[in-house]
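agent: user wants the structure for Integrase arm-type DNA-binding domain-containing protein from Spectribacter hydrogenoxidans. delegating to structure tool.
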Amino acid sequence: MVKKAITDLQLRAWLKRGEPMPAKALGDGLYFRIRDSGTSQFYYRYRFGSKNGKWYFLGRYPDMSLAEARDEARECRVLVRRGIDPAVEKQRAKAEALQGARFATVADEWFAKEIRPRYKHPDVVERVLRKWVKPHLGDSPIGDVTPMQVDRLLGEIARGGAPTVSNDALRYIQRIFRYARKRHIVGLNPVADFDQSDAGGQESSRERFLSGHELRKLFAAMSESRSFGRDNELAVKLLLLLCVRKMELLSARWEDMDLVAGLWRLSVNKSARPTEIPLPALAISWLHELQVRACKSAFVFPARRVSMRKRFPHVGPDTLNRALEELGHGLAPFTVHDLRRTARSHLSRIGVTADIAERCLNHKIRGVQGTYDRHDYFFERQNALAAWASELEAMGASG
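agent: tool returned. relaying tokens verbatim.
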């Protein structure tokens, strides 16, 4: 019996399920995979020399169509028959082509190879590139970028009130040019001599946190706003209550939530054991509401716009930041990350010991204690978060 060929419609159906999928053969060495992050990719698998089963990345779907992936796989098969390793040949041809490429093209390749596979939250890097670096340098041929151009960019970011972002932008630009030099795309690195003094300067620790009075005002403003949105409101409250990082919450999956046992198994990375976060009754009530609002999505906070080219299958990293910036809360400026500092400060205020408070934030304990004390303090954290939930309810967060 002849197998029916996989169609684009089938790929879309797999992607719509919102679940990771191991590499699936599409025929003639072409494979399709959906990663844990929700991104889908084409690969070509082949044998070359003494190495058995080499994998060559072709592209991301739907940026690369199924027809294009089949054409790429066909070209790879021809190269293998001629005794040429597709990975080596494509890399040589790409480096040659990139010698006159725009900065944005090389930056995208650097991001795809060195950031996306290795960073837990690659969206943090992507945001700086998209919002600041590419609008200024993206269209310039990478070999024509000058120190003066970079200096103007870094100064504009720093003067705009974001010195830390200016430092981040410098680090990323330096790494992009090191990547380009190693691949003979450029001969010189125009920012080799730059340091923090040329960007945002020495960074100091942030001290902003929200007092109890400010939290009451914030909860009232979110509740009364017609544009802030209930999902955004619940995200802010859960970040405060559970002490987690923004993208840990926004990318959370329902399969990791046990609302009956009151437990969230947060996978910090693929190799480490998941962190078990206790869910207070207040958090469970909010999550039940979000479960209804998610409309059977695999994600607690699914993407709000339906698009085959969406960057994330869940709410993106910029959404909550923009919503808070536009909310007329009448408070001194604060960032989403300041909510973690707020939670940590209030845990101390209500009498939670430092070691338990640090574990509530999933911080690593340093020194000898961190090396030898492997207890997860689940019940102690459960009691601490329950006490913190009571404080938040008293401030008006329960609505």
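agent: one observation worth passing along. The first strand starts at residue 21 and ends at 27.
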